[in-house]
Amino acid sequence: MKLLVFVGAGGSAELGVPAMARMADQFRRHVREWNVAPETVAELMPETADIEDLIEKLDILCSAAPTLTELGMDNSAAIEHAKTIQGEVEWFVQHACERVTPERALLQWCAVLREVRNHEMVLATTNYDRAIELAANRMGLEVRDGFSAFGAGEMASWVGLDRGSTEGEVVLLKLHGSTDWYQLEPSREPVKLRHPMPLFGGARLDVPSAGGVLSAALILPSREKRVSHHPYPRLSQAFLNAVDAADLAIFVGTSLRDPHIRQAVLDGAHRRPTVVVNRTRSEDLPAEAIQIMQSASRFLASTLPHALRAADPMESLKGEARGGWERSADGLLDLLGVLVDSSAAVRERCEVIETLYELGISLDAQLLEDLIKDADLTVARFALGLIPAAVDPVSILRTAQSRSDQDSEYRSELELLEELLVRDR
Amino acid sequence: MGSEATWPPAFSLDQERILELLTGDRFYTDPSAALREAILNALDALHRRTLSDPSHSGEIVVTFDREVLSLTVADTGDGMDPGAVTSLFARVGASAASLRGDDGAIGEFGIGVISYFMAADSFLVETWNGISEPLALRFRKEMIAGGPAEVVEPGPMTQGTTLRLDIRDRDTYQLLLEKFPYWCRRVESLVAFESPEQRVLTQGETLGRDNALALQTPPSIEEACLRAVTDLPSWEPPRAESTVGILYRGVYVQDYSVEKLWGIEGTLHVDPKRFKPRLNREGFVGVDFSQAVDDYLASVHPAILEDLARALGEELDAGHLDRWSAQKWANLWLSVPRSGRYAPVAEVWDNVFRRVPAFEVAKGDRWLASSVQSLIDLDGPIYVLPPREDKHGDLVKSAARLLRARGLPVLKGLARQSGALKGAPTAFPTTADLISERFASELPPFISIASTAEQILTELDALHLLYGGEHPVALVQLGTDSPPVVRAGPKLLINVDTDAGKAIVERTIEVNRGRSGLIEAAAEHAIPSLQQVAKAVHDAGKSDPEVLGLVKRHVLRNILQ
Fold it and tell me: Cβ contacts of residue A50 below 8 Å, gap of 6+?
């Protein structure tokens, strides 16, 4: 199956990256704390605006400098002021996006990324953070994002996205750039660094092997840049192609405020199954669009992988659509974090398992296997209860059976589970 | 003693004798006793005449006259001379026997004069002894206070005595008439009529020689007309006793009740040479009388009971006892004496009763009256409940419930009710005990639930083991009328058919602190069995509580649903 999964800001919220509106609040506090033109920021970004609005305005202001000079209007002070703020925003956003840890990213993305073995999958996002890349890296998966592989080097260059996706490959379209993408001066070619660092404002990074310096990270594109600035147009084209080619298109954690994302939903909903996942229901979507009210983390960590393993993924997703928000697991990644933390108290971990069980969460197979093999038999025994909801209970059951001689209570529960599974089959 | 100097005679009350008689058990309580008194006096007169003239066949004629309200008793006895009249009629309290020393006389009939005045305000005595002049005297009630009898002209008469009572009123007349068959059961040589139409009156004995059992009698008993009780459909004796009528020369004298000898009805005719009625005619003189009757009834009781058993069998076959409850059958059966002379009788009873429903067997939730015959064909053992349900502890109730749920036969023997045949000794406490011994070779083995309850419960298949180990806690289904928790040995059984049992399990799942969660549930439900096991577990000091995993709790919740 050809699958397109678009992830918006909601897909990174539980990873530590605030969504645009919240990021705006944090930035306002930041500029007040550091006294970086707080009044100007407040004027450019009122309470109702988010940080993308600020970025847009700053971009316009800074881009106007050459024209103003040609016209003999000396607004260098204002332009410098705007550039200062622009640099601060660039730093702030990069800094916020780098809050994502590989461990947390893995919890959210590992189950979906495992499904690239079975489906042609294109992941698209307007997020700048590297959650998907970090998770894929942990899993040893190659990500095809338009850049070459790093190999032994520090830098990767743009090679394009001319060919479509294949099974086993993660195709990632970062429509608004990434915190590890930079522009090489003077060629203006996009490059990617293995070890990204925030470059903002006038800061430059000298990379002799690259034959140039790196200027600000390729993020926060204005609308104008997205149309004309390489590689954004290529990325947009690749996205539209993926939307057209998909057998199933899923939009997770996005308000669909971005016009071209919204248009992709509206255009495609009547042609092929389209799923929109958000915390609230939207009333202005096509009737054909299936709306699932869940957090992005739950959908990505549990619902989608489970559906993709089902005999009829659409029926599985439709089933989820019938549920309301109250069934969603807010803070799922926090729970999973406790679960995988072997230093956490056994009781706490068991309580998490119980919560996951009550929520009907389908855990990633590897994660569940790890729990079954946990050093603590009580945790392992509790984890048995999650097997029925797993995507492949039979396989995990074999792992569980290998421990049955270690503890009578474990064995007792395992025997019960086997009875239940036989009965349910 | 009177003499012709006091003629006509006046009542002379023997104060001493009157006192003696009046302070006895009973005095005349019924105006119709006048009839009995008159008959007994006539019988005495006939007896005296036959002593002197053995060829004489006497007769007593009793005539009720509805028009003039009179009762006439005429006998062809020995008749009386003036001296006899004076002595016997006027000297109230005198005794013919004491005067003449004759064992054949009835006894202290002097007091009988008083009884005449209970029914009549005056009476006329005409008598002729065949030697002296016939006599006729009218005695009026006023004479009791003092004054002689009135001499009247006697009518033509043969030897004997005619007593005519002028009955006081119509009600008294009617009473005497109705009581005629009561007092006169089988008086030989007596005929009775009612005028003016000369309607023949029938004497009262219903159980004649033909209907009675053929029973040998001792010398003191002239004739026994006895049988087993006959009105079986409605027969429900509260006490183990029988009451028979005692007759003296065919005249009813008293009811005689004997304890422990139940099921007898009929009459005994005492030998008049051996027993004399008491002065007030409502009893017999002498302790020997009671002993003689007791001994005789005891001797015939086995035969009576055997006859009763057969009668019950016939009534049962005819469907006349279909309304009898199992309890009623049990009351009887358990009261049958079984030792000594009764052994063959008990066998007869057992053979009849093998087909009567004298105990109950559980069929699902219902108790059905059952008979021995219905048990004989059962496979496997029969489980027996203790007789008193209020003595059934939780363990017994639960075990019984479990057996019933499994479709195994549970038998409830019936004990004799407290208000039935009280006083009769019982050889067996319940019908279950009775049949288990008497039909041991035919019936499947009996197993007492009281002594095996714990074993029964420990062997049952639990729905699920809540906790294993030294003090296992299992979930079972014992029905809604069993308690929520039962301790069977070291095992604790939680009955999930009850709301309390379900609540205990839910609480345990909810707190999930292992067995110590049972202590919490115990505190809420205050069930001793639960507390015992929870305490035992707690005291054992197990460090790792047996926390229930998700799978197990999922299964438990499904069981609770």
Answer: A20, A21, A23, A24
Pick from A382, A408, A420: CB nearest B549: A382
Residues of A in contact with B465 (CB under 8 A): 412
- Nearest Cα neighbor of A189 from A220, A155, A140 is A155
Cis bond before residue A231 (omega within 30° of 0): yes
ipTM, interface predicted TM-score of the complex: 0.72
Measured CA to CA, the distance from residue A239 to residue A161 in angstroms comes to 10
* Measured CA angle at B205 (ends B200, B211), to 5 deg: 120
Using the structure block, give the residue that is written with the tokens 């397109």. Answer: A4
Return the DSSP state at A192.
E
In chain B, what residues touch A353 (CB-CB under 8 Å)? 550
Q: Output the six-digit token pair for B279.
A: 């002065």
CA distance B41 to B194: 21
A350, A408, A416 ranked by CB distance to B551: nearest: A416
Per-position DSSP letters for A350-366, written without gaps between them: HHHHHHHHHHT----HH
Query: Under an 8 A CB cutoff, do A416 and B555 touch?
Result: yes
For residue B196, is the peptide bond before it cis, meaning its omega torsion is within 30 degrees of 0? yes
Tell me the count of A-B CB pairs closer than 8 A. 37
Contact B549 A386 (CB under 8 A): no
DSSP per-residue codes, B99-149:
HH--TTS---GGGHHHHHHHHEEEEEEEEE-SSS--EEEEEEGGGGGS-BP
Instruction: Give contacts of B543 with chain A, Cβ < 8 Å.
Output: none
Choose, out of A404, A413, A423, the residue to mutate when testing the contact with B (most B CBs < 10 Å).
A413
Contact (CB<8Å) A416/B468:
no
| Phi-psi group of B457: left, alpha or beta (phi > 0 → left; psi -120 to 50 → alpha; rest → beta) | alpha
Which chain A residues touch B if contact means CB-CB below 8 Å? Answer: 350, 353-354, 357, 378, 381-382, 384-386, 408-409, 412-414, 416-417, 420
Chain A CA closest to residue B556: A416
Residue A356's closest CA among A325, A390, A322?
A: A390
> What CA–CA distance (Å, rounded) separates B419 from B405?
34
First to last CA, chain A: 26
Write out chain B's pLDDT in tens, 561 residues.
344 456 777 665 555 455 455 444 444 567 888 898 899 889 989 988 988 888 888 899 999 999 999 999 999 999 988 888 877 665 554 554 454 444 444 444 355 677 788 889 899 999 999 888 898 989 888 776 667 788 888 888 889 999 999 999 999 999 999 999 999 998 988 999 999 998 999 998 766 666 677 778 888 888 888 888 888 888 888 888 999 988 888 898 888 898 889 999 998 888 887 777 776 666 776 667 888 888 899 999 999 999 999 988 888 888 888 888 888 888 999 999 998 999 999 999 999 988 888 888 887 778 888 888 888 888 788 999 887 766 677 788 888 888 887 788 899 888 888 888 888 888 898 888 898 889 989 998 899 898 888 888 877 777 888 887 777 888 988 888 788 888 887 788 888 989 988 998 988 888 887 777 777 776 777 777 776 766 666 665 554 557 888 888 888 888 888
Distance from CA of A354 to the nearest CA of B (A): 7
Scanning every residue of chain B, which has its alpha carbon at the shortest distance from the alpha carbon of A355? B550
Non-local (6+) Cβ contacts of B288 within 8 A are B220, B274, B275
A379 min Cα distance to partner chain B (Å): 9
Residues of A in contact with B554 (CB under 8 A): 385, 420
Query: Are the beta carbons of B315 and B231 closer than 8 angstroms?
Result: no
